[in-house]
Structure formats: structure tokens, C-alpha cells
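Reproducibility note. Readers wishing to regenerate the assembly model reported in the main text can use the exact inputs given here. Chain order matters: entities are listed in the order in which they were concatenated for prediction.
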Amino acid sequence: MADIRPLVAGNWKMNGLRSAVAELDKMAATLKENPSKGADVMICPPFTLLMGVAKTFADSGMQLGAQDCHVNVSGAHTGDISPEMIADTGATAVIVGHSERREDHAEKDKLVAQKALAAWRAGLTAIICIGETEGQKRLDLTLKVVERQIKNSLPEGATAENTVIAYEPVWAIGSGLVPTVQDIKDVHGAIRKQLAGILGGEGEKMRILYGGSVKPSNAKELMSVDNVDGALVGGASLKAEDFLGIIDAYRS
Ligand code: 13P
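Running the prediction on these inputs yields the following C-alpha cells for the assembly.
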């Protein structure tokens, strides 16, 4: 198995006023003092906070990401943000195809692939999210759905450097529910096989994160599953204590 440096990324979603920067400062201060040797650490706050926190992040070794991007560089797209604008803040990554965007904004695989390409154009790492709904799981369609999402949302040219895959079962997001260790192992194993089939060595090295109700109490177990190369964390990334507790899974 390839030697992969894990990534623990926090997705703040539509949370975080300026007052929440105190939590980011706490995370940054702790990580500056006691760096996370075993994993890269990233937070994806809302667009409104990106500029303001970039310097703190750079000083602490934490990486900064955004949660979505438009496919174009600039132009008449009211309310949208381009990958180039995101890169201009100092951020180095962007989440694309999160299930909440697929659901709230009817984003399809094809658009997700275009967004990933746009992210690369701006020099950003694309964190491409995939995952089945509760109904699909009930019908035993998980592997089929995930395979289709990868086939259609992963553009040609993906490398272990420019792309991270995040497997987030939709029913596990914010619900406190998590798949069994065996299910995670099976899905991540199937994703690895597919990535290696499409991309060869790059697919062997590409990070596959697990996301959905990751907490300090379950992080160690989840992060030790084969082919789980880190986590995409929602709710538990909002508080420094919880997020640092998850990162601790990689300290020992
Ligand atoms: P929770 O960790 O709150 O379940 O959210 C996961 C998620 O959607 C991260 O992108």
C-alpha cells in the first residue's frame, strides 16, 4: 500500500461569524505549539472569513480551503466566487460536489467535474465529495452510486496532488450515525480499486477521506480503517477542542 499522508479537513458549511475566528485562533495556536506530525490539517470556513484568517493559518501550518467555486475565472455571475478568487485569499483547496450542494443546488456529476477542473486551473486542490443517500443504501446501491459518481465527477488529469476524494454517506452527515467499520472498509477499498484502475499509481496514492459524524470519540477507530486517509469533518470542526480531539487520532 502506498505511503499516504492523511488529511483532516474541517468543513464549516454556512457557519461562522467573525466572532468564531477565536476558535480558529485557538486551533492555530495549539497546532503551532504542538504540530500535527501525523496528518495535514485544513479548515474550510465560509468565504467571508477566508481573507481574514489566511495569515494566521499560514503561520500555524494549517491549510485553508473553500467550500465551493464557480467554473469560470470571472464574469457576470452574481453571487458566485471563482477558484482564482479563492486562491487569491491564500487558500489552497476547495470542496466540490458536497452532497448539500448536490441537493440544495441540484449540482450533477458533470458540473462537479467542471468545478474540479476549474479548481486545478487556479492551482487549488479539489476535494471531490461522493456518497450515497439513505434510500440508495437501503437498496444496496452504495457501491454502484459511488462508482458512478467517481466515473463522472473525476476529470481526466487527476493526480494525488491535485485531488482528494471524500466519501460521505449522506445519511451519516450530521446524524450521529456512522457506517460499520466493515462497510467503510468495503467502500473505501472499492474506491481505491477504481482510482487505481483509472489513474494507476496516482490512484494508489490519492487520499480518500471519510466524512459523516466524525467525532473525537470515534476518530481513532474510523481513521484506522484500511484506505481511510483522513476525515472531512462538519459539526465537530467548529470547536477547537473537538477538532483538535479528532486530530489527536494521528498523534499516537
Ligand atoms: P458532520 O461531521 O457534521 O456529520 O458533517 C460531515 C460533512 O458533511 C463534512 O463535509
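We highlight two features of this model. The radius of gyration is 17 Å. The first helix runs from residue 21 to 33.
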